[in-house]
Design a protein that fits this description.
The protein is an all-alpha fold. It has three helices and no strands.
């Protein structure tokens, strides 16, 4: 009686109970066959494919790493060369500045020597001096020159 009640209920929804049961049994048989023989083959195939995909991905990752390493090395070399060029430029600028300072110091020293020579000559000319006075004036001139150079 329950089977007829269920059949009447399902037929109200447009479902044939005996066709539904036969389809359910057919589905169960196909599922068991696939479970026993189909799914293991499919899973092994998928696992092999997944391993192939992983291997390709590893190779691509390694190539990308190698390419990035080469680019980083090239950039490091470029930066080093640029730094060396900049250091050489700064060195040349410093050498030029030192040479200018040395030239200016030499010019200043020459000017001081000329002034001292003129002062000494003026003192010698003003006085009528003897040999002892000449030696004393020259000694004072030398001493004054040494003091001004320091």
């Amino acid at each position: 009686m329950h089977a007829f009640f269920l059949a009447d209920l399902l037929s109200g929804f447009g479902i044939n109970l005996w066709a539904f049961i036969s389809q359910l049994v057919s589905f169960a048989i196909v599922f068991l066959i696939l479970w026993r023989w189909g799914f293991p083959v499919i899973l092994r195939t998928l696992a092999a494919k997944a391993e192939e995909v992983l291997q390709v991905a590893r190779l691509q990752a390694q190539e990308t790493i190698e390419r990035a390493t080469r680019l980083a090395d090239q950039e490091a070399i470029r930066i080093q060369e640029e730094a060396h060029a900049r250091a050489a430029q700064i060195e040349q600028q410093q050498i030029a500045r030192i040479q200018q300072e040395a030239a200016r110091a030499r010019a200043e020293l020459s000017r001081l020597v000329v002034n001292l020579s003129i002062d000494a000559a003026r003192k010698v000319i003003r006085k009528s001096v003897n040999t002892a006075d000449n030696r004393r004036l020259v000694q004072e001139f030398v001493n004054a020159s040494e003091i001004r150079e320091q």
